[in-house]
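Illustration 12: Peptidase MA-like domain-containing protein.
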Amino acid sequence: MIPRRRRAGPALAVVALALVVATGCGTVGVPGGPGSSSGPAASSTAVNVYERDRAAGVTRLLDSLTETVRSGDVRAIGALFDTAATPAFKNRFVTATGTFAPRRFAPRDGRAGTLRFASFTYQLAPTEEAEVLVPADLQELLDAGGSSDSWVAPVELRYALGGETAPGIAEAEVVVGTQFVVARHGDEWRLVGDAEALGREPPPTQMWELPGLQVADTATSGGTSVVASYPRTTPTVATLRRELPGAVDAVSAFWGESWDRRAVVVATATDDQFTALVPDGRAATGTAAAATVHSSVDLVQRTATGQRIILTPTARDLAPPTLAVVLRHELTHVAARTSTALDAPLWITEGVAEYVGRKGTYTRFADAAPDLTAAVRAGAIPAGTPADADFAMDGQTSQVAYQSAWSLAAYVADRFDEARLKKMYVGVAASALPAAQDAAITSSLGLTRAELVDGWQRWLARQAD
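Figure caption equivalent — predicted structure in token form:
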């Protein structure tokens, strides 16, 4: 029997995963493997067998996890966990498995009951990093429980909603990387914990890992959209399903049709639900109605995966016309995601989203921007575009920041047209560098930044009269 091995160097980690990837693909040469002339043959072969068997055993575990969760078999999921696994870790998978369980009622009013997936798989992830030691206190628990081996395994969850074999929204595959602590008992491996067990950030919470998830399909111009929700959000869901098709069309009228023109919208009922689904979301629950999140963005290839619009619990208190404004705002972020650098200035990203969201909802400037109007009338005309920090402030400062950003976008659309406003967005949002933004303003409008701000200030003074 090969003795317990809790750490391997980077080369061994690569070997183990190469063997997994190469299964069924013929012979692959690896350092120290068959045909290699480096190192003592017996020692190298033993290392390869150990790594191969460990990877194969954990792959079987991940295959069982995938199959059990997807089947909705709540009674079977518990057998996959080690006794050292925490209740919170186990409960997340129990909840997810219950979400996948077939519902015992027929869908009504377009409700599909559960999310449908074109693909859903847990698998070992390729990595070149050195293996991580299981923490000593956790290892003691595993030893006491009779474990003969342990591993911090690099893992990917790969999934895609909908698809040809599962009606519903069709999206590109989302990849969620994490680490699983696993332990061996005899010939079987069991789940112990995730990155949180290592004192690291846990993997992002998926919507199906929270209790009570239901979904409803809604037809939009780009295909099927999904409204996901939790208990006590029924009125919000009804409004979302009614307003979503028109909101998608309104965004397309501004941005064009070079985006998916469909979306996944999630209505939360509690602050904890919103915070679980939105990183650093706790600060937003009292001030915002929604946030848009994504899994990955490739600005070169112009692709984005896992985009979700997450509504805060306060959204249920909004009147339908106001919720429609929120939808159009957030859908603008979805449409513009692949044209927006992660560090793009908020005055352009939030300003244009506010412009699209509020278009056609007011007759007087003061109705759309009451706080800004009051400031201008008091002689406090903005000296320039609002700083990013202003949007994060509570109360009056953030209100004036959003309204100022909206008004600048409205000014450009009024003086020029929406096509020029979009062109300015694409140029300015591509970079956090002021010089690049200045060049984009000049390219799209034929103005310097100073000329743009000066014209906007004079327009504000007229609008606030």
